[in-house]
Amino acid sequence: MSIDFTVRLVGAMVGGIVLGLFGRELAQLTRDSNTSLYIVSLTFVGILAGLILTPYFTTRPIRHVRQSLVSMPPERLVAIVLGMFLGLIAALLMAFPLSLLPPPFQQVAPFAAAVILCYLSVTVLTLRQNDLGNILRTFQPRLQAATSSGRETSDQAVNTDVILLDTSVIIDGRITDISKTGFIRSEFLVPNFVLLELQHVADSSEMIRRNRGRRGLEVLSILQNESPVPVRITDMDVSNVREVDSKLIALARRLRCPIMTNDYNLNRVADLQGVTILNINDLANAVKAVFLPGEEMMVKVIQEGKEYNQGVGYLEDGTMVVIEDGKEKLNQSVPVTVTKVLQTSAGRMVFARL
User: Fold this and answer.
1) How far apart are the C-alpha atoms of 154 and 141, rounded to whole Å?
2) In what order do the strands lie in the sheet with 231-234?
3) Contact between 91 and 120 (Cβ < 8 Å)
4) How confident is the model at residue 32, as a pLDDT?
5) CA 76, CA 132: separation in Å to the nearest integer?
């Protein structure tokens, strides 16, 4: 039985009893002999009102407050709590002087002062929450040093216990193979807004986007069921940001953790904002075989190059090999000699000649 259904039943019982009693009193006030009609009618109205309206006053506000607290930035939460605390202290100091006022002000003024001072304190500290966060971060290394028995910590240190996963890296699918190698020990964290973006892509009317979204959901399922690395879906969100990439960067800055992606634009923007990026393309380039000028290898020429008389082939790991004068050797495996190796952000390119 769900909580909403239970609350509705309790609300229906309370509403029926309260309006039933009210119906009896109303019948006595009107001096109507048909008292039972009043009681039954209003009891029925109370039951219906309790069934329909109770969640709007109980579970739904609580759920909304809980969701707001989960997605609220820590600086804002600290500012609200500290503002209420300071407002109550100021109201307590003013309570005695205000109680000396003539009635009815001596009863109303202390309560009004508490409400006004709490509101002003919360508003001021919320508006300056970034400054408050900077002040708290200034004292954080000292507090950590005192509680960790001399262990050196830094506010700028990256939290390596958690890695945020981007939508592109989930759709890519290579993360499943990487996780099974055992090189990654950190927990994979998938925000709920990334999962919603995957679902949106999977529901797309375009076949290619729909297939990519479904592949991403399958990869996420494989990660949860087969990967030795723990995967956790989190409700943490950044309420004042709309775009998924911006949300990821803001969340990574809040958690001080890296983002795993293969999105070039996200990589550049995150670097500019000081967020650590784990790019799968960079990892793939790093583990490719190293070729030096003068080395020989066999390559199958499969297409023409952009320049005159060039041929293009690929190694087993996907590295492109541009072969000088290789156009005449299409669909043939030929021995080539490496002349130059070019490393770019898009991958590694080998230039060779016959």
Assistant:
1) 6
2) 231-234, 187-191, 162-165, 259-261, 277-279
3) no
4) 67
5) 9
Question: CATH 2.40.50.140: which residues of the chain?
Answer: 288-353
Q: Which of 241, 261, 266 is nearest to 251 (CA)?
A: 241
Return d(Cα 310, Cα 244) in angstroms, integer: 42
State yes or no: pLDDT of 154 exceeds 60. Answer: no
- Structure confidence at residue 230 (pLDDT): 85
Residue pLDDT, tens place only, 73-82: 677 777 888 8
Residue 273 · residue 249 · CB < 8 Å: yes
* Collapsed DSSP state (helix, strand, coil) of residue 351: strand
* Tally of residues, the chain: 354
pLDDT score of 1: 56
**Rounded distance, CA 264 to CA 251, Å?**
19
Alpha carbon distances (Å) from 73 to 17, 105, 196, 202:
43, 39, 21, 30
Residue range(s) of every CATH 3.40.50.1010 domain in the chain: 162-285
Please name the amino acid found at residue 13: M
Is CATH 3.40.50.1010 correct for 162-285? yes
**DSSP-based three-state secondary structure for 341:** strand
Is the distance from CB of 323 to CB of 312 less than 8 angstroms? yes
**Residue 4 — pLDDT band, cuts 50, 70, 90?**
confident
Give dist(CA 91, CA 293) in Å, integer.
79
CA atoms within 13 A on the CB side of 317: 15
Query: Model pTM greater than 0.85?
Result: no
For CA atoms 295, 297, 303, 309, the dihedral sign is positive
* Pairing state between β 259-261 and 277-279: parallel
The residue among 49, 119, 114 whose CA lies nearest residue 80 is 119
The label of the residue with tokens 């001399």 reads: 150
Q: Where are the alpha helices (DSSP H) in 58-128?
A: 59-71, 74-99, 105-127
Q: Place domain 288-353 in its CATH homologous superfamily.
A: Nucleic acid-binding proteins (2.40.50.140)
Q: Are the beta carbons of 23 and 43 closer than 8 angstroms?
A: yes
Percent of the chain with pLDDT over 90: 0
